[in-house]
Specification:
The protein is of the alpha/beta class. The chain contains ten helices and eleven strands.
Length: 274
């Protein structure tokens, strides 16, 4: 029994998504330089970094949009090699992009299933490729309701008729519906007001409560410190430190991010790079 308990504890500590020594160069420009990454099960990991630090390239390498020149990516402890975002989606990794990647003229249900539409059973679906609209509407409504998006009454209304917060909610609901293992969120509150940002943060916490780990890329320090369990600080193409938001301040995080304070001097910092 003791051995089983120890094994369970070890499994719990194993990252669900990890990277070791990732490097990506564009000619003489080094975007990521031997970067490491660890996302633990069930956590919200914030990724912060100054402009040009390489955090966007790191995230793209982890979700299949960029192929790294060196290093390895591990999903559930097994090495993976994503050649496209579709490969990552097939492995259970979803990304909510800053531009949301929604089609404004299509309905909420159509956007939820964009690129992975459900087809009718039998000959009509297999041969004539007819879509199962009732099934897609039902799943879309269920997923929106699970995240508390009850203000959206008509699942068939075009996305362009929704508010900014509601659109973000649709994108998050889509990611939660298909992201079985990891969800990346790129600046989810960047274009929103205070009230809608609050709703989106609550949605993110709802997704976390379902056991799905989240990587949050954000420049909004108050939001990062409010909902993140750990903070990955990216600087000069690599991980500078992992911070515990309960043991350091926003000023400390900015100081490490900009190089004004060596991370080795900061309480609550781990994975420190000298």
């Amino acid at each position: 029994m003791t051995n089983q308990s120890n094994q369970a504890a070890n499994d719990e500590r194993q990252p669900i998504l990890a990277a070791r020594g990732l490097a990506k160069r564009y000619g003489h420009v080094v975007a990521i330089d031997g970067s490491d990454f660890d996302l633990m099960p069930g956590e919200i990991l914030a990724v912060i970094g100054d402009n040009g630090a390489g955090k966007s390239t790191l995230i793209k390498a982890l979700c299949g949009a960029v192929t790294p020149d060196e290093g390895e990516v591990l999903l559930g402890g097994e090495r993976v090699s994503f050649r496209s975002p579709e490969d990552a989606r097939n492995a259970g990794i979803e990304t909510v992009y800053q531009n949301l990647a929604l089609s404004p003229a299509l309905s909420i249900a159509d956007n939820m299933f964009l690129g992975r539409e459900m087809r009718r059973s039998g000959v009509s679906g297999r041969l004539f490729r007819r879509l199962d609209q009732p099934a897609m509407r039902k799943v879309a409504r269920t997923k929106l309701s699970e995240l508390g998006l009850l203000t959206i009454q008509n699942i068939d209304q075009p996305v362009e008729t929704l508010s900014g917060g509601q659109r973000q909610g649709v994108a998050i609901a889509r990611a939660a519906a298909f992201g079985s293992r990891v969800i990346f969120m790129d600046e989810p509150t960047a274009a929103l007001g205070v009230k809608e940002s609050r709703k989106v943060l609550d949605l993110i916490l709802d997704v976390k409560s379902k056991g799905i780990p989240i990587v949050l890329i954000s420049h909004n320090m108050p939001h990062v410190f409010e909902i993140a369990d750990r903070i990955h600080v990216h600087r000069l193409g690599k991980r500078a430190a992992i911070l515990n938001p309960k043991e350091c301040t926003m000023s400390d995080a900015v100081a490490v991010m900009t190089g004004a304070m060596p991370s080795a001097q900061l309480k609550g910092a781990s994975h420190v790079v000298a």
